[in-house]
Write a structure and sequence with these properties.
By secondary structure, this protein is of the alpha/beta class. It has two domains: about 140 residues, FAD/NAD(P)-binding domain, CATH 3.50.50; about 140 residues, FAD/NAD(P)-binding domain, CATH 3.50.50. The protein is built from eleven helices and 24 strands. The strands form seven sheets. A six-stranded mixed sheet has the order 5-2-1-9-21-20, covered by helices on one side. A five-stranded parallel sheet has the order 11-18-12-13-14. It is globular and about 70 Å long. The site of flavin-adenine dinucleotide (FAD) has 32 residues, from helix 1, strand 2, helix 6 and helix 9. The site of flavin-adenine dinucleotide has 32 residues, from helix 1, strand 2, helix 6 and helix 9.
Length: about 375
């Protein structure tokens, strides 16, 4: 059997690793990048910490899995009748797993795509580094830094950037600069997808750390030197967009083959199949709780098990979605973690979140390799 897995993120990598362990045949992992990107730590990499915790070469992950062939290609089209998927080349599959992740959307806000910094790709993080570097070379940090969108990524980034700016000011003795980080959210509360306790406690903590929180405020446009919020201009050259995600455009381009929900994600059956021999997992599907790493890992393992069952003439098992813990670092020494309505905050919250990250790395790498990658978080950190 030849299983083709598309996507080198949590879903694709975990599925390929599990299939490799089962020795069910040939596995090809196709991804448009040569590395796995650990989105959850990009806020840290963007604010002075090591790239090692966020960017892991696929060749390192699969070093002990010679039965997985890694191919770098961007998949654009699909012919399910002929069991073919295509990018620069055609790839024939017996079973196909699609885990392409989501992409950024700017909700049509004027100038946002052109002028904002982002946190979803390696290039975006590098651009942001370059921008901060340019500011430092000219000894002139911005007066106001804006983070747009107070979901988990926006909150993490706002607190981390606030810390980072303080560190840079101390290192380079930029005494004259009074930089401020403002988190802007159109909804009435920050973290609208989490509990009220999470929203209240984290909002208080952000303010305590010096981050300005603007809820019920809508960003109307972004220019190269100003942002328009509720019709009023504010001078800035640094606005970071963390707000919108939408499904990978591959599915819309091949919509005739999928049953798409209104938000563009793919409807799948209880075995996570979108059509015969084609599984769609992780951020791409409409399964309950999809959209974070933990459910993606569970789905990837489940699909790998089901493909193994089919290979040995056993029936597939239905996937049962389960909720995932949430952990949010708010600065280096305060975090919030919540699961099944139970929460911890403060230092304990930081430790809980760090343990969640270790769990994630251990899903991709042997423990002895996962620990140094996890500990890379401490590299380049500046002591208070
Ligand atoms: C900034 C940010 C912070 C986050 N923080 C957290 C967090 O703290 N905790 C948490 O649980 N989740 C977090 N998430 C969500 C989590 O990262 C995703 O839910 C998870 O990565 C989904 O896994 P996936 O495999 O579906 O997609 P991804 O991990 O996004 O992987 C998709 C892969 O497909 C590849 N690809 C895309 N298109 C193509 C193509 N056409 N051809 C070939 N390859 C392609 C991509 O390069 C990538 O390797 C965060 C996400 C972001 C963006």
């Amino acid at each position: 059997m030849h299983v083709v897995v598309v996507g080198g993120g949590f879903g694709g990598v975990k599925a390929a690793l599990e299939l490799s362990k089962k020795q069910i045949g040939k596995i090809t992992l196709i991804s448009d990048e040569s590395y796995f990107l650990h989105h959850a730590t990009l806020y840290a990499t963007a604010t002075g910490k090591s790239f090692a915790e966020s960017v892991i070469p696929l060749k390192i992950i699969f070093a002990e899995h010679p039965n997985v062939e890694i191919v770098q290609d961007k998949i654009t089209s699909f012919d399910p009748k002929r069991h073919l998927i295509a990018g620069k080349k055609d790839y024939h599959y017996d079973k196909l797993i699609l885990a392409l992740g989501s992409v950024t959307t700017y909700f049509g806000i004027e100038g946002m795509k052109e002028h904002s910094y982002g946190m979803k790709s390696l290039d975006q993080i590098k651009n942001f580094h370059e921008h901060i570097h340019d500011e430092l070379v000219h000894q002139q940090l911005d007066k106001d830094y804006f983070i747009i969108g107070a979901g988990s990524s926006g909150v993490e980034m706002a607190a981390a950037l606030n810390d980072y700016l303080k560190q840079l000011k101390a290192i380079y003795r930029l005494k004259q600069t009074a930089s401020k980080v403002t988190l802007v959210e159109a909804a009435p509360t920050i973290l609208p997808h989490l509990s009220k306790t999470a929203s209240t406690k984290i909002s208080q903590q952000l303010k305590k750390q010096g981050v300005k929180v603007l809820t019920n405020h809508k960003v109307g446009a972004l220019e190269d030197d100003k942002i328009i919020i509720d019709g009023k201009p504010y001078a800035t050259t640094t606005a970071i967009w963390t707000s919108g995600v939408t499904n990978n455009p591959f599915f819309k381009h091949n919509a005739e083959n999928f049953h798409l929900a209104q938000d563009g994600r793919v409807n799948v059956n209880p075995y996570l199949e979108a059509l015969a021999d084609v599984y769609v997992i992780g951020d791409n599907n409409t399964v309950k709780y999809s959209g974070t790493a933990w459910p993606t890992l569970k789905q990837a393992t489940h699909v790998a098990n089901n493909i193994t069952r089919l290979a040995t003439k056993r029936p597939q098992r239905r996937f049962a979605p389960t909720s995932a813990p949430v952990g949010i670092p708010v600065g280096s020494h305060w975090g919030y973690a919540e699961w099944f309505g139970v929460y911890v905050s403060g230092r304990t919250g930081t430790y809980a979140r760090r343990l969640m990250e270790l769990y994630g790395y251990c899903q991709l790498l042997p423990f002895r390799q996962a620990v140094p990658v996890w500990r890379a978080h401490e590299l380049a950190a500046v002591e208070e």
